[in-house]
Amino acid sequence: MKNKDLKALKLPVTPGVYMFMRGKERLYIGKAASLRDRAKSYFGDDILKTRGLHIANMVSLASTVKFFPTDSTLEALLFENKLIKKYRPCYNTKEKDDKSYNYVVITKELYPRVLVVRGKDLSDRLPTTNYKLQAVLGPFPQETLLREAMKIIRKIFPYRDTCKPCKITFTQVDGGRISVKCKPCFNRQLGLCPGVCDGKITSKEYKKIISHIKLFFRGRKSSLLKNLNRDMKSHSKELEFEKANQIKKTIFALRHIKDILLIKDTPNKELTDNVFRIEAYDVSHMGGHARVGVMTVIEDGAVNKNEYRTFKLAKNIIDDTLGLEEMLTRRLKHKEWRLPDLIVVDGGTAQKNTAEKILRENGFSIACVAVVKDERHRPREILGDREAVDNRRREILLSNSEAHRFAVAYHRKTFRGTLKASKNKDDR
Questions:
Q1: Which residues are registered as beta bridge partners of 286?
Q2: What angle do CA 160, 166, 170 make, to 5 degrees?
Q3: What 8-state DSSP symbol labels residue 365?
Q4: In terms of DSSP bridges, do strands 302-303 and 133-140 run parallel, antiparallel, or are they unpaired?
Q5: How far apart are CA 128 and CA 116, in angstroms?
Q6: Which of 17, 251, 329, 424 is the most buried if burial means most Cβ atoms within 10 Å?
């Protein structure tokens, strides 16, 4: 196949799946964020260097390229998996060893779990829990992409993975009998668990979520939307407006899936400039000494670890507000880094005021919020821009959680020697 043959096909600049064909034989199946850009990449002068002899031979054998546009790169990922599993093209060599695959499994329980499992660990029961499986979705050859896809899917269809279903207990108080509510898990606070752990969802309602996930994975989006529209009208008819509104939000999310970070194969900078960027900051230290700071990034609700940054703080930094001040001052000097739409700091009013002061002094008008923790270091409230808090609560909590995790990990890695020396000194 030649470049002129490709131009005649007029591939669209949309996500989708492409298929190199030799007559009726399927040689290779792939996914793309931009079908046109990805297909063009196979016809460059440096194909041997960039793709290798194996793929160069495949292109020379192909007679045409079939393409199937999708509404999102997430759907392209799922559709590619479905086609590879069905046709097993000879040039998809990386996808031939089933034991190296990853699967999405749904357990057979009253409130089923949705988990990612390696092929080598797959059987009719999960080895760790011994629960039977009601569905196995996949296989998926790329674990990283699958886990990123699951983050997107879970925002649309919250599900249970590890938390325990709520069991209402009763206690005697002054001769009376009162119920004790179950505590929500962390994912529940982020909106990623539908309320299995705190008893906010029935098994019948949860069963519908699981059926929606299975339909979506099997590429039956039109059937899924039809079912959701029917349920929304049914709830409205029964005057259950809160449930109807929640389904309306789900339908909107399905039709406007924000997954531009899932498949990175297009150089168009407008994929990155229009996303909502949150930067979260946290400081970690050892008994007030050896302080370090980190910046984590959430873009359109998904973590972007490529943008994470670390800061070794000056020795005279004696508290977290001074550490935050140094971090933000140094960060704002990097004109080549894209500015955030929202800044999240760990702490209270002092930390929020410090961040806003640094932003003002440097001439930036960026919204800022602070996550206040309770005595167990769990989020208690969010201070700051109310619009951001109302509309971005899940992302704010996620970014704050990521910043704390990353700060602790970076501190341990950086000062492992200091910690060991300190321990040896204590032993003496």
A1: 289
A2: 175
A3: -
A4: unpaired
A5: 13
A6: 17
